[in-house]
Design brief:
Elements (H helix, E strand, L loop, with lengths): L5 H7 L6 E4 L3 E5 L7 E7 L15 H17 L6 E4 L3 H4 L8 E5 L9
Antiparallel strand pairs: 1-2, 2-3, 3-5, 4-5
Bound molecules: 2'-deoxyguanosine-5'-monophosphate (DGP).
Length: 115
C-alpha cells in the first residue's frame, strides 16, 4: 500500500470506483476516462509500479491479471468480438498512474495506433 497512489486507495476502498471484478490478488474497475465502449483497468492489489519493476516473487500477478481479463471479457460480452490489452510503462509509454495496470479496450473495432 502506497498512500500516495490513487489505485492503492481504490484497492483499500478509500476512493470510489466502478468495480467489475475482484479476487484475492487483483481488482478491476472501469476507467474514469473511457476511450472505448468497454474500458476496464485490471490491477494487482499489491503496489507494483509496472513491468520494469517486476521480480520473481511478483511475476505470478501477471498471470492473475490475464486470468482476470478472461473472466471480465466473458462478463462484458466481448470475448467473442475481441478486445485490446494495453500496458503502459514509464514516460514514453504514457504511464500516468504508477501502479501497474492492464487496459482492456473493447466494444468496437479499434484502429492502430490506439487513440
Ligand atoms: P495510464 O496512462 O496507462 O497510466 O492510464 C491510467 C488510466 O487511469 C487513465 O486511462 C485514466 C485512469 N484513471 C486515473 N485516475 C483514475 C481514477 O481515480 N479512477 C478511475 N476509475 N480511473 C482513473
Amino acid at each position: 500500500m502506497d498512500e500516495n497512489c490513487i489505485f492503492c486507495r481504490i484497492v483499500e476502498g478509500g476512493l470510489p470506483a466502478d468495480r467489475v471484478y475482484e479476487n484475492q490478488h487483483v481488482l478491476a474497475f472501469r476507467d474514469i476516462h473511457p476511450v472505448a465502449p468497454v474500458h476496464i483497468l485490471v490491477i494487482p492489489r499489491q503496489h507494483l509500479i509496472g513491468p520494469s519493476f517486476l521480480d520473481e516473487d511478483a511475476a505470478f500477478l501477471m498471470a492473475e491479471m490475464f486470468l482476470a481479463v478472461k473472466e471480465i471479457a466473458l462478463k462484458e460480452g466481448i470475448d467473442g468480438t475481441g478486445y485490446r490489452l494495453v500496458m503502459n510503462q514509464g514516460v514514453d509509454g504514457g504511464q500516468e498512474i504508477h501502479h501497474m495496470h492492464l487496459h482492456i479496450l473493447g466494444g468496437r473495432r479499434l484502429r492502430w495506433p490506439p487513440g
